[in-house]
Each structure stands twice: as C-alpha cells, then as structure tokens.
Design a protein that fits this description.
By secondary structure, the protein is of the alpha/beta class. It is 39% helix and 15% strand. It contains 11 helices and 12 strands. It has helices at residues 13-20, 24-31, 39-52, 58-65, 81-96, 111-124, 171-184, 200-216, 230-238, 254-266, 300-315; strands at 70-76, 100-106, 128-132, 150-153, 165-169, 191-194, 224-225, 248-251, 276-278, 295-297, 324-327, 330-332. The protein has a 6-stranded parallel beta sheet with strand order 2-1-3-4-5-11, sandwiched between helices. It has a 4-stranded parallel beta sheet with strand order 7-6-8-9, sandwiched between helices. A two-stranded antiparallel ribbon has the order 10-12. Helix 1 crosses helix 2 (24-31) and helix 1 (13-20) crosses helix 3 (39-52). The longest helix has 17 residues, at 200-216. The N and C termini lie far apart (85 Å).
Length: 350
C-alpha cells in the first residue's frame, strides 16, 4: 500500500517514490528530464506527481542539474511596437519550452545600464541571457560569465567571447525592397523618414534605402530623422510640403508613416495619388487605416520562436552550427502606394 503525505505537508520526491513504488533516484530522473527511464515508469511517476501535487524545488534542482530553467532578458524600457512585440514573443516561446523569463528593463540603454542588468540576472541565476537592446552604443564589451549562453537580436553586443548567438530580421534587405517597390512605380526618387539616430535599426534601414537608390541611379535626398513617433513623422512631412519632387516616402516605422500621411492629407494632398508612402513593421492598425498602409512585415513570432529555440538548444548542450541567423521580411502592398502621378496637386499651408 502506498503512503501519502499528511494534509498540508510539502510533497517531497521521497513521497512520490513511495506513492509510485520506484526509487527516489528514478523520481529525480523524471523530474529533471534525464534519460534512461522507460515510458511506463515515467508515466507512473508523472501520475503520482499529478495526484499529490508535487512542485519541484527550483533551487535544489539547480544544485543538482546546474540549471535554473530560467532565461534572463535585458530590454529597453519602451512601449514601441517592435521591442514590445519581441518581449511578448520571447515570453511566450520560453513558457512553451518550460522556461521562466526574468526581465530587466534599462533606461537609455547605456553600456553601464546594460552591464548592470546582466549582473542582476547572473546574480538571480539564469541559464542564458537575451539582449534586446536596440540602441546603438558602439558594440561595448560586456562582461558575462564564461559558459553562459547569450543571444542578441539584430546585432552582436561584443560579449567577451566569440560565440554569441544573433537572430534578427534582415532590415537592410527589407528597407531595400520597400524602396525598390516605390521606384518600380515610376517615382524618380524616394525620400526617407529615418528613426532615432541612436538606434541600430535606423542605420540598417538607411543602408538598404541608400543601396536601392544607388543601384537605380536615383538621387539620394537628405535624410529626415524622427524619433519613431507619429508626431515626428508629421513634422517630417511638413518639411517636405513645398517640394514638388516629393512623390514617394519610405518611413522607418508605421507610426511615423501614419503621422506623415496625416500631414499630407491636411495639406490637401492625397495618399497615394500625390504621395506614396511605405512604412515598416506591419503594426496591427496599419491594415485598418483610412488608407491602408503598404509596409514591411516583421514576423516577430517567428523571430522570437527561432531565437529562443536556438538559445535553449545551446543551454542544453546542442549549439547551432551557425551563430548568426537572419529571417527574411515581407513587403505587404496595400493602398498607400501607387504609380507616380504626372503632376502633384496644389499644396495649401497647414
């Protein structure tokens, strides 16, 4: 007859062993996901775990397995769509794989703040670290304990060793396709509303835009920088109103594109008849605007799923053969782009 623990008592692995009629070592192997346990025995132990409500002691398990089943993530403190979508995707992928996620948010993403966040996560006890810091701080040297896997999105962070995993969208190629789409519609050139000058994504999207213009032999207009907000896109468009050569714009994200569309519409111009506009991200609202937005779709679910999978494989002793992996983007063509009109309409001041 199997014995059960007294009501209210904490269930131990010894209790599970007695209840299922196996050794405590076998229970430990099942709890820690080790091999050399038959399916029948594993099912019997799992049934006892479920019936008795056993919850493994994470600290004790870590002492035995040297694993915490926890991933640490360093991310910038922002509500912008891209970083928020990455955080949400990582959280879902980690949970699906049976890992907890500890998140530390930085302020301005300075090297000192990033290092402090890494130190905090290492102290807590994590099996790997994800860096989701979009600000370009010049690839600072980060101090991470040897043997602790690190994954970053989009760019290496100059960790003190050369085996950092990097997964991200090929943003230069994506920006290039957005620009080529506008040029193919007969526009003589494409203006660019860039993101924050301090972000690595801004630099990569500018690069793709410039490459497309260069290959087409098109003039390269002066870059107008924004800060990812719709207000900055609105202000950028206002600065273009008196220029008849502005017939096509590639904005570095959807929210700036939305601000630009509003400015042109208030000035008596129509999108896309007078000005074609392409955004970047395919944010949820982009398909439901008064003029649905042509944009670059970032598959954040796929990027984060792939990234977390590669990190966990590395944690479990099966690192990928290639450290860097790019995920292609997709141009989503909607109603904000059209062939160039022979003449732009009269612009009224706003």
């Amino acid at each position: 007859m199997t014995q059960s623990p007294k009501p209210g008592a904490r269930v131990s692995m010894m209790d599970i062993a007695r209840h299922s009629g196996v050794s405590q070592k076998t229970v430990s192997r099942v709890v820690n996901g080790e091999a050399h346990v038959s399916p029948d025995v594993k099912a019997k132990v799992q049934q006892s775990i479920d019936e008795l409500g056993f919850r493994p002691n994470a600290a004790a398990r870590a002492l035995v397995t040297q694993r915490f089943k926890r991933i640490g993530m360093v991310t910038i403190g922002t509500t912008l769509f891209g970083p928020t979508a990455i955080l949400s995707g990582v959280e879902a992928a980690a949970k699906s794989a049976g890992y907890f996620l500890s998140v530390v948010r930085t302020g301005d993403g300075t090297p000192a703040q990033i290092q402090s966040a890494i130190d905090q996560l290492v102290t807590q006890g994590v099996d790997g670290i994800i860096l989701s810091e979009p600000i370009d701080v010049g690839h600072p040297i980060m101090d991470v304990p040897m043997g602790l896997p690190v994954l970053s999105f989009d760019q290496p962070s100059s960790i003190t060793r050369d085996h950092e995993l990097v997964v991200g969208l090929d943003e230069s190629a994506a920006a290039r396709s957005a620009t080529e789409h506008l040029l193919a519609l007969g526009h003589e050139t494409v203006w660019h509303i860039a993101g924050d000058e301090n972000w690595a994504a801004t630099r990569r999207r500018i690069q793709g835009w410039q490459e497309a213009l260069s290959d087409a032999g098109a003039a390269e207009p002066a870059i107008i920088y924004g800060d990812w907000s719709p207000a900055s896109g609105y202000a950028a468009a206002q600065s273009m109103l008196n220029r008849p050569d502005v017939t096509a714009i590639f904005a570095a994200n959807d929210t700036m594109a939305v601000g630009a569309m509003r400015a042109f519409q208030l000035a008596g111009l129509n999108v896309p008849e007078d000005v074609s506009i392409v955004g970047f991200d395919d944010s949820p609202e982009s398909a439901f605007l008064h003029t649905p937005l042509t944009t670059i779709r970032q598959d954040f679910d796929e990027v984060t799923r792939l990234a977390v999978h590669r990190l966990i494989r590395t944690i479990e002793g099966h690192p990928p053969t290639t450290l860097h992996r790019s995920v292609p983007a997709q141009l989503i063509i909607r109603e904000s782009t059209a062939r160039r009109s022979p003449e732009r309409h009269h612009i009224r001041s706003i």
